Automatic annotation (TrEMBL):
Belongs to the centrin family. InterPro entries: CALM/Myosin/TropC-like, cNMP-bd_CS, cNMP-bd_dom, cNMP-bd_dom_sf, EF-hand-dom_pair, EF_hand_dom, RmlC-like_jellyroll, Thioredoxin-like_sf. This is Calmodulin. The lineage of its organism: Eukaryota, Sar, Stramenopiles, Ochrophyta, Bolidophyceae. It comes from Triparma laevis f. longispina. PROSITE patterns: CNMP_BINDING_2, CNMP_BINDING_3, THIOREDOXIN_2. Residues 34-167 form the Thioredoxin domain. Residues 176-195 are annotated as: Disordered.
Amino acid sequence: MRSIIRYFVSLFLTLTFLSTSQGFLSGLNTCNLKGRGWRFKSISENEETQTEFKIVDEKITSLKTPDEYRAFLSANPEKLVVMKFYAPWCRACKGLEPKFKKIALDDTHSVIFSQFDVQKNKDFVKSLGILALPNVHFYGNGDLVESFPCGPSKVPVLRKKLGEYVVERVKDGKYIPAEPKPEGESKESEPCAERDSVISVETREMIKELVYFKGMPEEDFEEMLSKATMSSFEPGSTIMRQGFPGKKFYVIGTGEVEVMARTGYEDPLTTPAGFMGSVVNRFGVGNFFGERSLITGEPRAASIKAVEGEDTTRCYTFKQEDIPASCVLSGKGRVSEAEKQGVDARYGAVGFGELEVKDQLASVALENQRRGSVNTPGDLKDIEDEELEKATAEILPLLQKFKLVRMAARCFEHIMRTTPKWGDESEVYRRSLLVSQLTESQKAEFRSVFEIIDGGDREDGTISILDLKRTMESIGRKNTETELRNMINKANPMIDGNTELKYSEFLGMMAEAEFYYLFVDTFNALDRYNSGYVRAGDLKQVLVGMGGVVFGSDEKLSVVKVDDEDMLIDYEQFSRMLIGAS
């Protein structure tokens, strides 16, 4: 016993010494930086403070805190400021560094260059809406006027944008704001596909004769056609993936595509991670694909690839939001069983269901449990302390209950960060898809959580504000009535002003939070610096093994377009995108 006490005392003293030494060395480093930069006096509400900026590479000012960021913009009120946001460990950021330096040194127009280190500034950087690193911001008169991800290969874009701002907005070294646009006019984002401004008469007639557009009112058809884009896909590239939600409809203009589907019977131990299935169909010019998800609202039933060895495949692309309600592809009409069977057959979805996959995975998991492992704990029945045994038997149910309540609290925290589209049935349908991915044990656990919260005096099958208040207080959380009311209201996106929560609504909410935190916790394990950002390549690699659980874009596994896989992505926002949450 004494040796144990001596060990912990020794450990405590060692940690104390290291902590003190670290603070001392940090103080030395701070002292050594004095005199290497320049100072700017900023006056706060009650006191005058000194902000010191460090100049690096002659023309680039290094910023490391939100206070320095704000003070720096205040110190350059009439200038065009170009600010790079980077992470010291980011390979894409390191690749951009010499190119950014060269741009700064070549400038002769009094543009101000700076860089902001995101390390230890996670919440602040995310509050600026930065979804990918490295990122570049343009500020004019202290206001943000341009923001875009900028990896090493995007330097030409940076040069072009900077040149345009210098020519149009910088006069005698000062930034001149752009004239306000007329009300209702908004700035267009860069298109992700070519706008096909001239569609031939033959192509127009070919599209008009497609089964889904026949009989469409001429006015609706012309408006939809005017919003179509032309997307190009290199040979062998993946256009969409099985298991992902679909929001686009494609009509093939040139080239061919292959339809590939996984059956659910593949051996998970021998099947390659990137295996997309067997070829079940092939479409050529004048054919179409992508309609199944738009019609049924279900995830893609197959993957589509541009045929290898052929020329570039070009497709006329229609977003579902641009398709008029008069067309079944808009997702606003009812779908007959015959229509569903028809689109299922095109993509090899007949006979493919979730039950086979779930049964297969369940059987594998069961066998793993039967085999056990060397780490399985031994039997605890030989413990002689009966009092300890009795106490354990009493406290374990309480701890289990506490765990379930905390699970619900975490779920409500996620829902509070969402912005429901009130009355949007697609939001309810999206959650129902997430519920369908839950295991029976998860559903049973969520049922237990619901019953605990609804375990008050009423216990009427609904969660009221009073029920939620009592539950949150049981784990030490003090919420205002307004906060509690918002928690329940946002949990049901169909009704704005809802004050009670039914089990079906609660289950949908729990399913969304469950998958959101599944992704966030998984990606967080890759975030060694707790920055909130992870390499795009690492994100994609992790998602390969998640199969149909992913509810993200069917075209790209990224929340933003990135030019290389070394760029860093905001994985919390990426996780929201994967489950389709607002």
